[in-house]
Design goal:
696 residues; alpha+beta; seven-stranded mixed beta sheet; five-stranded mixed beta sheet; 24% helix; binds dioxothiomolybdenum(VI) ion
């Protein structure tokens, strides 16, 4: 089924823009409540051990303090199975920065000051927070994030490497990184006899609901989660973290009085998720014609001893290029650290840095242009499953990107282009991201006799433009004007919506809305002769099953081109230009889509040059835990970003023909920049971020 194109594709400005610009859009912490209290978290100062003594008397004596919460008096959780959530249930300490208490007071300042007066004595135990490849306790998890197999081994990679005319065998390292959305993780929680209401900064109101309800022995409906506006998440507000548990506990403790809770920027570095560091050994072989004879990606990464998160770092290598022989492995070090989690393009972002750097190295050895080398290894079908691709725009993105960027001006010989004391280099890398879909969404559409439609689905807009794009999709599916449609999202009292994660939102919510719209139009035509009855008309529909899902490999693709300038005396690195070209099916909104790609590429540049969380293994904490020392780019760091996409028709991915676009923009960017640095200087940097000391 194809729907009529009218609103879809239009560069419509976001509907929530005026509210946000005027400062009246309400974020989690800002929801007005009567007589609020403020919670300030107390965190462990040791990386492992047990609390032997807590003295709260000084804190409790402070003016404004309502309650001091520790493991001794905190509400008991109905389940402690998820150790990340099982805070304040015992004196045990599992990692540095873990929540061990909280102060509730009538002002934020009073709570924060009183928290500093709570005296906690600990018996410290040995801890291990030292991430490195050579550990003898690395283990293979059962599965990776998103359900991927831990290891794959097709063909005979050893034979493939033995017969190769050219081999690359190198190790690539990516650092721990923190998501750092602009809005910190925050909750306004109100506990009543009926249950709890959480104004929550979350990527999924139902994800938050299903985490909280069982912990507090509540039915899901008793946990109302409201999240109309979210100041970014980048994955860190996807899988819930312990902050929402602490806020709910506090609300229960002072039942009846609302509690406001926000993490400080520094606390976000301790408890709200982060990207695992990775150490990746890549072995690629190519024959004399530049055809890959083997692809091996062996990944070592980190998890927490208390809860496993296994990033799917090597999965892109399974499907990216044609080779008979492909092996990928993942091994984890379980450490006394906070639980790693999703961060924009988990898996692809670090994994494709390594693969696309290695591909550049191998192209150099073969003596081929890196664009042509990739095209030569374009597979006919998915190398992993043998399935045809529903659509695969990589070659077109590489060719079109090369044209837009001016790739023909690149000198194949490293270190031969310069402008004064600046060495100039060009680099390329591929992008990829799977077309994920999340089950379980339901959309309700209500038509009123004035020809207006209300569309309700518990989806999320985390700054991406969901509100606007779902209105566009609904308008087209209902065959009506954009102005006639109102969309309601971000509230668990609405019909169930999956969360914003894995770039799956538009596919999942959009196809649900299209199904509901189809049902509504059918009823309207069938039973009502095309006239909306006086009493209105309401239908609900579940997300339809995609009959093509098992017959095709479904991915979005892209190319990233980078120009870098490296100062030959100081090692200063500038990126004056990036060109990203994407093949992501049909683009729903040309304006908000462009913003997604721009944001992704900026995030990728940030990964290439700036971001790195430095953990001190002696104490187990991230030392550079603020935005003064954890660098993200500012305007002056970003040059010209060109974004383009090719019009791709994919009849198999879903009814709209869309693929997710939230994450692909970051994939490959860092490799394109590293490859450009090599082209500029002849220095191959295999460890991110690329800082001047690595170039001198
Ligand atoms: Mo996004 S990192 O899939 O929440």
């Amino acid at each position: 089924m194809t729907i009529k194109t009218r609103a879809i594709g239009a560069p419509i400005s976001r509907l929530d823009g005026p509210e946000k610009v005027r400062g009246v859009a309400r974020y989690a912490y800002e929801h007005p409540v009567t007589d609020p209290t403020y919670l300030y978290a107390i965190q462990s100062e040791v990386a492992r051990g047990r609390i032997t003594k807590v003295d709260t008397t000084k804190a409790e004596a402070q003016p404004g303090v309502v309650a001091v919460m520790t493991y001794k008096n905190a509400p008991r959780l109905a389940s402690t199975e998820d150790a990340e959530f099982a805070i304040l249930q015992s004196p045990e300490i599992n990692f540095r920065g873990e929540f061990i208490g909280g102060v509730i007071a009538t002002t934020f300042e009073a709570a924060r000051y009183a928290a500093s007066l709570v005296e906690v004595t600990c018996e410290e135990a040995d801890h291990d927070a030292d991430f490195r490849a050579g550990r003898d306790d690395l283990y293979a998890p059962d599965k990776l994030n998103a359900g991927f197999e831990t290891d794959t081994d097709r063909g005979d990679v050893d034979a493939g490497l033995a017969e190769a005319a050219y081999v690359v065998d190198e190790t690539y390292v990516t650092p721990r990184e923190h998501n750092n959305p602009m809005e910190p993780h925050a909750t306004t929680a109100v506990w009543t006899d009926e249950g709890v209401t959480l104004y929550e900064s979350t990527q999924g109101v139902f994800w938050a609901q299903s985490a909280v309800a069982p912990l507090f022995d509540l039915d899901p409906e008793q946990v109302r989660v409201i999240s109309p506006h979210v100041g970014g998440g980048f994955g860190s507000k996807g899988l819930p973290h312990a902050n929402v548990v602490l806020a709910t506990m506090a609300a229960k403790m002072v039942a009846g009085r609302p509690v406001k809770f926000t993490l400080t920027r520094q606390q976000m570095f301790a408890v709200a998720g982060y990207r695992t560091p990775t150490i990746q050994n890549l072995r690629l072989g190519a024959d004399a014609e530049g055809k890959l004879t083997a692809v091996v990606q062996n990944v070592v990464e980190q998890t927490s001893r208390i809860k496993e998160f296994a990033e799917q770092t090597g999965t892109a290598a399974r499907m990216m290029y044609a080779s008979e022989n492909i092996r990928t492995t993942h091994r984890l070090a379980a450490l006394d650290v906070a639980v790693p989690s999703w961060m924009r393009a988990p898996g692809e972002a670090p994994g494709m840095f390594a693969l696309e750097s290695a591909m550049d190295e191998l192209a150099g050895k073969v003596g081929m242009d890196p664009v042509e080398f990739r095209i030569r290894n374009e597979p006919e079908a998915d190398p992993e499953t043998g399935l045809p691709f529903s659509s695969r725009g990589l070659v077109e993105c590489l060719r079109e990107g090369a044209r837009l960027f001016g790739w023909e001006r690149r000198s194949p010989e490293p270190g031969t282009q310069r402008e004064g004391e600046w060495l100039v280099g060009y680099g390329v890398a591929s992008s990829v991201y799977p077309v994920y879909v999340m089950p379980g969404s339901v959309a309700r559409i209500t038509a009123t006799p004035d020809g207006k439609f209300d569309v309700a689905i518990g989806a999320a807009d985390i700054g991406t433009g969901t509100w606007t794009t779902l209105t566009q999709i609904a308008a087209d599916a209902l065959d009506t004007d954009f102005e006639d449609v109102t969309v309601e999202i971000g509230d668990s009292s609405l019909p169930k919506g999956s969360g914003a994660g894995g770039s799956s939102g538009i596919t999942s919510w959009g196809s649900t809305i299209v199904a509901a719209a189809g049902k509504l139009r059918e009823e309207l035509e069938g039973e009502h002769g095309g006239i909306i009855p006086e009493s209105g008309l309401e239908v609900s529909a579940k997300m339809p099953r995609n009959p093509h899902r098992k017959d095709y490999a479904m991915y979005a693709f892209g190319s990233q081109f980078a120009e870098v300038h490296v100062n030959e005396y100081t090692g200063e690195l500038r990126v004056p230009r990036l060109t990203g070209t994407f093949a992501c099916g049909r683009i729903v909104n040309a304006k908000t889509a462009r913003s997604q790609f721009l944001g992704g590429m900026t995030f990728g540049l940030s990964m290439a040059l700036h971001e790195e969380s430095n953990l001190d293994p002696r104490f187990g904490h991230v030392m550079n835990h603020d935005l003064a020392e954890y660098h993200v780019p500012v305007n002056a760091d970003i040059g010209e970003l060109d974004v383009a996409w090719i019009d791709e028709e994919d009849p198999y991915v879903n009814e709209m023909g869309t693929k997710g676009i939230g994450e692909i923009g970051i994939v490959g960017t860092a490799a394109a920049i590293a490859n450009a640095v090599y082209n500029a200087t002849g220095k191959r940097v295999r460890e991110l971020p690329i800082k001047p000391d690595k170039l001198l």
